[in-house]
Amino acid sequence: MVGSSPLLVLAFSVACIFGQLFELAQAQNGTQPATDPAEVRALNTIFQKWGISARLNQWNISGEPCSGAAIDSTSFDDKNYNPFIKCDCTANSNSTCHITQLYVSFFSSCFVSHAILA
């Protein structure tokens, strides 16, 4: 800024920094998106009928399934997660999650069957 005083430049810089900090604080205080309740019921029913469950340290099937690895950068192809879901949480202005992928692998002594719904 040609001809601007250093004080004006400093004030503008401080205002920008506080604006960014305010936006960051609002983003962290926002509520987390929730999985569509009908999809939670359907997923729980399927898992109950199949007699399977997710490990607690991977994602939360009983409360909010679209959490943890279901919404982070974990690859859907990561076979350490079985069963596994991935979610899209952009519906309703980022307030609703939908389960978009389901992976379940069943192993027995007679056969191997893979069920992948995408």
TrEMBL record:
This protein's UniProt keywords: Signal
Signal peptide coordinates: 1-27
Name assigned to this protein: LRR receptor-like serine/threonine-protein kinase
Organism: Castanea mollissima
